[in-house]
Amino acid sequence: MILVTGSAGFIGANFVLDWLQIFDEPVVNVDKLTYAGNLRTLKSLQHNPLHIFVCADICDRAAMDELLAEYKPRAIIHLAAETHVDRSIHGPENFVLTNVVGTFTLLEAARSYWSRLNDAGKAEFRFLHVSTDEVFGSLSATDPQFSETTPYAPNSPYSATKAGSDHLVRAYHHTYGLPVLTTNCSNNYGPYQFPEKLIPLMIANALGGKPLPVYGDGQNVRDWLYVGDHCSAIREVLARGTPGETYNVGGWNEKKNLEVVHTLCDLLDQLRPKAGASYRDQISYVKDRPGHDRRYAIDARKLERELGWKPAETFETGLAKTVQWYLDNQEWSDEVASGDYRKWVETNYAQRA
Ligand code: NAD
Ligand code: DAU
User: Fold this and answer.
1) Structural domains of the chain in order of their starting residue, each with its CATH number
2) Residue limits of the NAD(P)-binding domain (predicted)?
3) Which of 23, 105, 203, 319 has fewest C-beta within 10 Å?
4) DSSP of 43-97
5) Is the pLDDT of residue 335 over 90?
6) Does the pLDDT at position 298 exceed 90?
């Protein structure tokens, strides 16, 4: 079986749902259920005997040791993290705890477990660490895309803690021989994304008749990848990646934020038209994010060359599917938008007036 951390979150849940559609290999799903973790997303797996959910904190060494001893996974797919850049600006501490100390704790538990496996088990075991393109810092409009050899230059507390975790993962391979794999991926979008991130936030605000808060001049660039494509990349790297290597994952979809918001508004105008008005009328420019990285762009050729992976969705097909999913599943967004979520929205956006 495999053990997946952070699998009640956006990418983790999509990964587990896809995995159990494709394979009949069991999954132990480990998540602390922070504000970002949501068991409603995993409702369809409630009675699936191949899915075991364990509520635990990756910073809890005893719990991690017990889980590994009990379930004896052949691989750990590590996604658990604090992930929202704006939250890391308001309160970096949890980011250091989960992303750095949590990854360290999990690595220590994995090293101890792995060192006691027989030779075949040792050779088969993988620790796959899911990271981000934000560790590479910010590009100018003319810089080449990030490659696997781009030096690290993280700019936010979030990306600095992800960079720290990447370095620890690398060191555990170099020093102890732990068979690790690291993926550095660009911005994901798709079903079940918490409505604090750009795309689901804009959809929720548009449908709720609220302003669509574009930071700064709206010209910051991100590369967008449909979440199902990220999940297929993780599966490929797990199956055939070389231990110790890192793989960039991207969608070849560089877009300015304003372009993304315009496209979303146009899709909503078609699918859920408002009488006599466009959703574009709700766009509102607000104060910029401190230290806002200007451009991210990913060169994903290594993954294509070595493992044959390519994204299946274009930005247009992926975004249309995503908007339709949010329209069909509005109760999911309503349910996750708890009191805590409303408090966050007030805190973050009050300061951007
Ligand atoms: P998310 O915020 O939606 O989910 C994170 C999950 O981790 C939640 O279910 C949360 O409960 C859990 N978690 C947090 N702290 C924990 C702890 N201490 N112990 C156990 N569980 C804990 O995040 P996501 O967007 O799904 O991102 C998943 C991973 O992918 C992260 O490592 C992130 O850095 C990386 N990543 C995300 C993106 C993106 O665009 N979302 C892009 C590249 C990489
Ligand atoms: O690049 C990968 C990263 O993508 C992941 O590692 C992170 O976990 C994930 O959160 C995401 O980080 P970003 O900061 O790029 O994502 P976010 O959705 O917060 O913002 C995307 C862009 O949109 C960014 O330039 C800021 C802007 N933005 C965001 C929000 C929430 C707005 O203009 N308005 C908003 O209200």
Assistant:
1) 2-188+224-249+290-312 (3.40.50.720)
2) 3-322
3) 23
4) GGGTT-TTEEEEE--TT-HHHHHHHHHHH--SEEEE------HHHHHH--HHHII
5) no
6) yes
Question: What does the pLDDT look like over 106-132, one tens digit per residue?
Answer: 999 999 999 999 999 999 999 999 999
Q: What is the three-class DSSP state of 194?
A: coil
pTM of the model: 0.98
Residue type, 21: Q
8 Å CB contact between 245 and 211: no
User: Is the model's pLDDT at 339 over the cut of 90?
Assistant: no
CA-nearest of 51, 55, 168 to 111 is 168
User: Does residue 100's CB lie within 6 angstroms of at least one atom of ligand 2?
Assistant: no
- Closest ligand 1 atom to residue 33 Cα is 11
What distance in Å separates the CA atoms of residue 29 and residue 3, rounded to the nearest whole number? 6
Task: Compute the CA torsion angle 184, 188, 193, 195 (nearest 10 deg).
Answer: 110
CA dist., res. 100 & res. 165, Å (int): 5
For ligand 2, say whether the CB of 197 is within 6 Å of any of its atoms: yes
Average pLDDT of the segment spanning 172-190: 98
